[in-house]
Amino acid sequence: MELDPVLMEEFLERLGARDPALAHSLVNDPNGIDTMLVQFPAYTGDPSASRRLQQDIEELWRGDDSAITATSETIISFAVTDAVRDRQTDSVSTTVLVAVTVLAVFFWVTVRQPGLAFIAVVPTALVLVSVLGTMALLDIPYTIVTSIITALSIGIGVDYTIHMIHRYREEFTRVRDPERAAVRTLAATGSALLGSAMTTGLGIGVLAASPLAAFQQFGITAAITIAYSLIVAVLVVPPAMTVWGAYRNMRLRSMVQRTWDELDEAIEGIHRSHGQEPGEA
């Protein structure tokens, strides 16, 4: 039997007049669907427990899923965090591609070596993966505040790797020895980056002592990001640049050998044009 909307509206009005407290639970919409708001207190200090509670509440409803919505400040925070996380995943991929493109153009214009962009950016991806993995191990949630760490890891990581790359190129130009250039780079720029990372990490890490949990988590993750950026810049970039230096030396030797071969052929051609055998005066 279909309910009469007029009678239903009258019933809701009388019910609200009898018990005004029900005004918080009943929503009378003459032009739409009458709804009921059920409120109850729930205290969970653990975000994962709050998520489970949300799922349990929604599973209690056996009707159409679109007819029930579990909501609270915590649940709204979850929804916002999930949306930010999804957008951050897309934006990180875009940022990495943009960074590779910009650095490729930069290295091409300055040193005609666009491939150095990959040496500068790929280690940063390792930093990002390591930071997110460490956050999972330490049970640090991925929130709106800690999501900033993805951009921070790319910014700091690329900064450190570019310093190492430029210093290595300077040392390699002087000594033309890939291994010696790596050692000299670590001795000079490596120590400078260590001091910079320590001061920056300690400065931001002070937030770990904040009374607010969000700031504590950000301070810890920021310090971890800076530490990983330094480790990757010191342990990954020099070996990669050593391979790059060896490749440059190989190309140089090949170019010199080709030049000598062309010169020998030119000299032989001159001798033949004068009717002399190569080696005759």
Topology overview:
Layout: H1 5-18, E1 26-27, E2 35-36, H2 47-60, H3 73-111, H4 116-137, H5 148-175, H6 178-205, H7 213-235, H8 237-273
Antiparallel strand pairs: 1-2
Helix pairs in contact: 3-4, 4-5, 4-7, 5-6, 5-7, 5-8, 6-7, 6-8
Low-confidence residue ranges: none
The name of the CATH superfamily of the largest domain reads Multidrug efflux transporter AcrB transmembrane domain
Strand order of the largest sheet: 1-2
The total strand number stands at 2
CATH architecture of the largest domain: Up-down Bundle
The CATH C-level class name of the largest domain:
Mainly Alpha
Order of helices and strands: HEEHHHHHHH
The fraction of residues assigned to DSSP E strands is under 5%
Count, helices: 8
Q: Please summarize the sheet with the most strands.
A: 2 strands, antiparallel
The CATH topology of the largest domain comes to Multidrug efflux transporter AcrB transmembrane fold
Rg, Cα atoms, Å:
33 Å
Average predicted confidence as pLDDT: 78
Q: How helical, in percent, are the residues? A: over 70%
